[in-house]
Amino acid sequence: MNGVINVYKEAGFTSHDVVAKLRGIVKQKKIGHTGTLDPQAEGVLPVCLGNATKLCGLLTEKEKTYRAVLLLGETTDTQDTTGQVLTEAPVTVDEETVRQAVLSFLGDYAQIPPMYSALKVNGKKLYELAREGKEIERQARRVRILEIEIHEIRLPEVTFSVTCSSGTYIRTLCQDIGEKLGCGGCMKSLLRTKVDRFELKDAYKLSELEELMKAGRIEEALLPVDDVFARCPAVRIRPESDRLIRNGNPFEKKDMAELTGENPMEGTELERSCVRVYGSDGVFLGLYRRERNGRRYKPEKMFL
Description:
Elements: E1 3-9, H1 15-26, E2 31-33, E3 42-49, H2 56-60, E4 64-72, E5 74-76, E6 85-88, H3 95-103, E7 107-111, E8 120-121, E9 124-125, H4 126-131, E10 141-154, E11 157-164, H5 170-181, E12 185-195, E13 198-199, H6 206-214, E14 222-223, E15 234-237, H7 242-246, E16 251-252, E17 256-260, H8 269-273, E18 274-278, E19 284-290, E20 296-302
Parallel strand pairs: 3-12, 15-18
Antiparallel strand pairs: 1-3, 1-14, 2-3, 4-11, 4-12, 5-6, 7-10, 8-9, 10-11, 12-13, 15-17, 16-20, 18-19, 19-20
């Protein structure tokens, strides 16, 4: 099987657990996920199968949307309510002050990654060091908060949605909001509602995928690889140029039989400069990037 399945990761599973269980369901080894979700977090986890595993890095870098509950007045070593409580303080701020503090994080800000994370330092994951009782200095990273919508303020809890750049830790955002308010804060719950084009309403639980597999209908949940790049124009290659492309060579306009669509003016850098390439038989071969002069295209990612 080649394609992407939009999995609903349930609480209690690690992202690695989801991949392992899906391997057992579809009886296929070549599977990879597109970005770690904390064990207690739920929501969208695109999982790539077969040659679609080449997509993992591309989807990991996509913008993501979350719905989170922030608990004010408490900090923990994990920055969420699963960790050991470090401080407790009364929440004396009013709703308007809270609202202003949350919205003040819109845009770029320097975020220090948490110790309980899968980031590696000198070959060792930070959470492994944290479990050994060690804490090391981490460099702040520039992240971007594109949208924040506050759904409810019922102190000491605040429920909000956030769309952010890849690499943003919502646990850390919650802690930073609490720190700005002077009472501390941590994350109570997290639901990932969107990763690029993959949305919560279309996600399948593992139990649902197991039923589809038993019924011989698993393809219903499988998104073809080229659909991930639906915003990129499509190029069909002339029969005499098929071999050239299948060997991963660049091609020119004379090799095209047909070009459908235009690159969007707005979108990711990849969408603005790449095309989907199909053989003369209609089989998707890969993603090619247009060179600056517009005359030649070179391979970005092949999916043979």
